[in-house]
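This section describes the prediction task in plain terms. A model, or a person checking by hand, is given the sequence of a single protein chain and must write out its three-dimensional structure as a string of tokens. No templates, partner chains or ligands are provided. The sample shown here is typical of the held-out split.
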Amino acid sequence: MSGVPARASPAVQAEALYLINLLLVPGLAFLLLLLLFRRHRNSTDPLVRGHVRQTVAASLLAGLLLAGGPALMVLAGDLSRPGVWIGMVLYFVCCHGTLVLLGVFGLARALAGKPFSYPLLGRYA
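The expected answer:
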């Protein structure tokens, strides 16, 4: 099985760090992901380069979505109203769940040695 990457390949590491950033240790995992990106952003292997670039772009988008969305709701709404809180919680849970699910898909593709493109990011990363 020469086409299947080793479990410790940078593509798998990038996807795992993306999920760790979302689920366990947000700041530290993102810093480690940036270090991995710095080391492998110009890799000759298109699989590694694609996964590393996609995860960094997806992490930046995730931070913007998960912090910016509720911040806009706080600015636009009155925090004394329960509807604003319900909207913020629903937004965060749905958005976070979607980002985690996409990260699991990316990790599965990296383990299989296949490329993965996050929706909305496409080939921009």
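For orientation: The mean pLDDT is 89.
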